[in-house]
Design goal:
Blueprint (H helix, E strand, L loop, with lengths): L8 E7 L6 E5 L3 H11 L7 E4 L5 H5 L14 H4 L23 E2 L3 E7 L12 H9 L3 E15 L2 H14 L1 H4 L13 E20 L29 H23 L13 E8 L3 E22 L10 E2 H4 L10 H23 L2 H13 L12 H6 L7 H16 L2
Antiparallel strand pairs: 1-9, 2-3, 2-7, 4-6, 5-6, 6-7, 7-9, 8-9, 9-10
């Protein structure tokens, strides 16, 4: 729920294989979705119906993160870069996955953990159980820092249009999941529009167990190795203390390395995160877990209700679906604004593309006056820039698009 506060819906388990355009069938009523999400911290994605290739990447990123020369194919060239250049290492291995994608910065998240009582953290990382073992504690409080994070996404309008085409092609399949008038049950298509990847997580744990009566006296802790051992030779005290600490550190580091490595029957290390000791004391430990290549930890998307005839309703943000303060009828205004806004946008696009140079200039001027764009846009880019201003959540913006659509229809 804390990660959700950063406008990201967590994925469980962490995986590489989720990307914008993935379509899932959600057969859980809205109120039950909210309960499941509150209980587990994530929304199960168990019915993966299909994957479309968003065609809006070029318009979305060409003015910012795409090179001025050359062609970038998303998501492949960011997730699994190929060929020479910045995307590949000198040895030909995939060492720069996600490096070309926009950066993301997350805050630190706090959690608590107890042996045998589960973990109040819906992010499955090896560093937590390994750190708990090093502390030899039955309880700990900690924090996790999501680092080396990147994101990739595409706009809702272009994805929604592609989803409509996909739904029409698969209408016979969707008919089975249309609204049932008898039970009033509604199924939804969830499509992902943005994903968030992480290549590194820092986990810090502090012993929070209650010790009384000396019950745990003598219980060995790996981190106790870091306690200073006084040498008998006073002359070599500095060298001996340093040597003792270094040896203890190396011992614990090897334990962490071994705990974070999964080896198959052939002796090869299996893919996944790798652990490294970052800091340790007798009451705390910090571990650095890296993921190479990065893994998806969360996403954003929208849901569309499947109507009785197999057609789709308007998109509803998934994060709103998971808000317990929302109900289905509270999306009516959003639906109305989305329909009106997309209709206005289509009218503007049609009139602008068919208009004369003078008419195009007049439409751009009116869009600037309404604050939909900041300045005149080069030929061929106006519609692309205007699309970014569309927001069905804002009734004022919706009204501006309607006004601009009327102007575009009336201007000769």
């Amino acid at each position: 729920m804390t990660i959700r506060g950063s406008q990201v819906i967590p994925v469980y388990p962490l995986t590489e294989d989720i990307q914008p355009g993935d379509i899932f069938l959600v057969q859980v009523p809205i109120d039950q979705q909210q309960k499941l999400y509150s209980k587990h911290g994530f929304l199960p994605l168990d019915i993966h119906l299909g994957r479309i290739n968003p065609d809006g990447y070029t318009d979305f990123y060409s003015h910012s993160f795409f090179p001025t020369n050359g062609v970038v194919v998303l998501p492949r060239d960011w997730i699994r870069p190929q060929g020479a250049g910045v995307y590949m290492g000198t040895n030909g291995t995939n060492t720069a996955a996600w490096k070309a994608a926009p950066r993301v910065a997350f805050p630190s998240y706090s959690f608590t953990v107890r042996n045998g009582a589960g973990l109040s953290l819906a992010v499955p990382v090896q560093a937590v159980p390994v750190g708990l073992s090093l502390l030899a504690s039955d309880a700990a409080s900690g924090s996790i820092q999501i680092q080396d994070a990147r994101t990739m996404g595409v706009d809702t309008i272009s994805v929604y249009r592609q989803l409509e085409d996909w739904a029409w092609t698969n209408r016979s399949f969707l008919l089975s999941f249309g609204i049932n008038p008898a039970s009033k049950r509604t199924n939804y298509l969830l499509i992902i529009t943005r994903v968030f990847a992480s290549g590194r997580m820092m986990v810090s744990l502090k012993d929070a167990s209650n010790r009384s009566g000396g019950l745990d006296v003598g219980v060995p802790k790996p981190v106790n190795l870091l306690q200073p051992q006084l040498p008998t030779d006073r002359a070599s005290s500095h060298e001996a203390a340093l040597s003792n600490y270094t040896n203890a550190w190396n011992t614990i580091s090897e334990m962490v390395k071994a705990a974070g490595s999964t080896v198959d029957t052939a002796g090869k290390v299996l893919p996944g995160g790798s652990l490294r000791l970052a800091a340790a004391s007798t009451r705390s430990v910090s571990l650095d877990e890296t993921f190479d290549p990065p893994v998806i930890l969360g996403y954003l998307g929208f849901d569309c209700a499947i109507a009785e005839n197999g057609e789709l309703g308007v998109p509803i943000p998934t994060h709103a679906m998971l808000d317990p303060h929302y109900a289905v009828n509270q999306f009516d205004q959003f639906r109305a604004r989305f329909d009106a806004g997309t209709s206005s946008f289509d009218t503007i696009e049609m009139n602008y593309n068919a208009g004369s140079t003078a008419k195009r200039e007049a439409i751009q001027k009116r869009a600037i006056e309404q604050g939909l764009i900041a300045a005149p846009v080069a030929e061929g880019k106006f519609i692309r820039v205007l699309r970014r201003s569309f927001d069905a959540n804002d009734p004022v913006v919706t009204k501006k698009f309607q006004t601009l659509a009327d102007f575009s229809s009336q201007t000769p």
